[in-house]
Amino acid sequence: MIKKNMKDTPHTMTEADFEEFAKATDNYSGSDMSIFVRDAVYEPVRRLQLAKKFRKLQNGKWTPCR
Known about the structure:
Order of helices and strands: HHHEE
Structural class: mainly alpha
Number of helices: 3
Helix content: 40-55%
Strand content: 5-15%
Distance between the termini: 33 Å
Shape: elongated
Largest sheet: 2 strands, antiparallel
Radius of gyration: 15 Å
C-alpha cells in the first residue's frame, strides 16, 4: 500500500524499509495509508513554510535553519 500511494514520488527507501513500515502499519486501512504517505510527502513543505531563516549549502542549494 505504501508503494502504491507513493506513485512517482522520489524516495530513498529500500525494500527493507518498506517491509519495516508494512509490519508497523499492519492494521491500517487503505485510507489510513493514503493519509500517512500524503502527510510524509508534505512534511518538507511544512518545514519551509515555518522557516524564518535559510542557509546556503556547499552544493549551492538552500535549506531552512532551525
